[in-house]
Predict the structure.
Amino acid sequence: MLLNNQIPQTFESLKKSKFRSRFKLTEKDRQYIRDKGIDTIRQHAIDFISARIAPQFPKNDGKQTPMRGHPVFIAQHATATCCRGCIQKWHGIKKGKELSGQEIQFLVELIMRWIEG
Ligand SMILES: [Zn+2]
């Protein structure tokens, strides 16, 4: 898994970003995670990435991820997986093409490690 090998380094870079490290889960988000269970949250992450990020040209790209309302949204801003521009800049995955299964898995992994950490 080539992409997953870059996860520790990616987290180091994200920590150095003032903007990215500003994002925190609220108590309501934490309660939501406890209520739903981590497997359900992972499924939500897969669903959000697949529907809102993975298409060749995602709808409202750059503005498709709200700043609050779901722990996965917060995690997406914190890990720069919120839109294709941020993903291209931070993770080197080009815009204008549909994401592969492996790329989706990588982005979900980043989101889940951030939430669990
Ligand atoms: Zn973005």
Q: What stands out?
A: The pocket of zinc ion is lined by residues 82-83, 85-86 (CB under 6 Å).
